[in-house]
Specification:
With 345 residues, the chain is mostly helical. 32% of the residues are buried.
Length: 345
């Protein structure tokens, strides 16, 4: 007999079925977070959502890990094939956008060729090179590199939850030590280890047909309710506790709730289709958004019209989405050809 939770339509599979739409929502959250210069919104809940929009990246990593776990579970693949498929989806787009952006800056005398090459290498984050692009892509590529090892460890654990719990408990001392040793600049990556492991764990659960029981759902909700406690306790004894680690304890129930709400709409509902489009093109949109954030001083000189900078962000957000979707559609045939696919996964 199926569990009570499943009779009500709750399952880990919701996360897989609504993964594209959840990525679209996460992207919108990031875009809202990146409106740094926007005047304070006079609606407290919206202003709060804006201030914590950085966790959109954590949702991306959680859902990416979930997808990787499903992919590795479906079929055997060599490390070479696995890495080729992952990197082909990321690097050509990254090299094109960041390369053209870097060459424009070089032509304008605003950066050096050395910095452009560091950006293209994606090693700048790990080598702490100043005035470079953004931490996310270098971190994402390393997550891709480590996923086969992480996934194998989870598969061999009888209780994968304990491995994820161990990673979570070790993240704070690791990040603290890195800060003391002068390597705190890599903590944007380190703080995301727990949420990435969570994504692998949930993806593996889906692949193995594991049910989301009422007990498990209650456990996730209890963890979420207790999530503020570490962030309250550790600062009181002089230890910095990143809000990213607090969100890791909330990520699974929040994504389940979002997926459940989305599942109430028909698959071809316009909202779901729009969010899927944003999710499908999220990487390209994100790259253009980072450029507009970095170049606020330049673009605001002729787009900063009216109060609150609403016009500026309305125009640049439309450009983020338009350019991102256009580039994705332009490069999709090339990506599919390189991967030998008739259509995207």
């Amino acid at each position: 007999m199926k569990s009570d939770s499943l009779r009500r339509g709750w399952s880990y599979g919701l996360l897989s079925r609504c993964r594209g739409e959840l990525m679209g929502l996460a992207l919108l959250w990031i875009l809202l977070f990146h409106t740094y210069a926007l005047a304070p919104i006079p609606i407290a809940p919206i202003e709060w959502l804006k201030s914590v929009g950085f966790v959109g990246v954590d949702i991306f990593l959680f859902l990416s890990a979930l997808g990787l776990a499903l992919s590795l579970s479906r079929r055997e693949q060599s490390l070479k094939d696995y890495l080729f498929r992952r990197f082909v989806r990321i690097l050509p787009t990254y090299w094109l956008v960041v390369g053209v952006y870097g060459l424009i800056l070089r032509a304008a005398g605003r950066t050096s060729l050395r910095t452009v090459l560091w950006n293209l290498s994606t090693l700048f984050y790990w080598c702490h090179i100043p005035n470079t692009f953004n931490w996310y892509v270098p971190a994402l590529l390393v997550f891709y590199l480590l996923t086969p090892l992480f996934f194998r460890l989870l598969c061999r654990c009888k209780r994968g939850e304990w491995l994820v719990a161990a990673v979570y408990c070790l993240t704070l001392p690791l990040s603290t030590c890195l800060g003391l040793w002068g390597y705190g600049y890599v903590n944007d990556f380190v703080y995301r280890l727990p949420v990435f492991f969570l994504g692998l764990l949930v993806g593996l659960s889906i692949a193995r047909g594991r049910e989301l029981t009422l007990k498990a759902l209650g456990g996730w909700l209890l963890i979420a309710l207790l999530s503020p406690l570490p962030g309250w306790f550790f600062p009181r004894i002089g230890i910095y506790f990143s809000p990213v680690l607090t969100f890791a304890l909330v990520c699974v129930p929040l994504c389940l709730l979002g997926a459940k709400a989305l599942s109430l709409l028909k698959d071809e509902n316009p909202l779901r289709r729009f969010l899927r489009l944003l999710g499908e093109c999220s990487f390209e949109i994100y790259l253009f958004n980072v450029i507009f954030v970095l170049e606020y001083g330049f673009f605001s000189s002729f787009l900063d019209i009216g109060r609150g900078r609403l016009f500026y962000y309305a125009v640049t957000t439309a450009l983020d989405v338009g350019l991102g979707v256009g580039l994705h559609k332009l490069l999709a045939p090339l990506t599919q050809r390189l991967l030998g696919e008739k259509k995207p996964e």
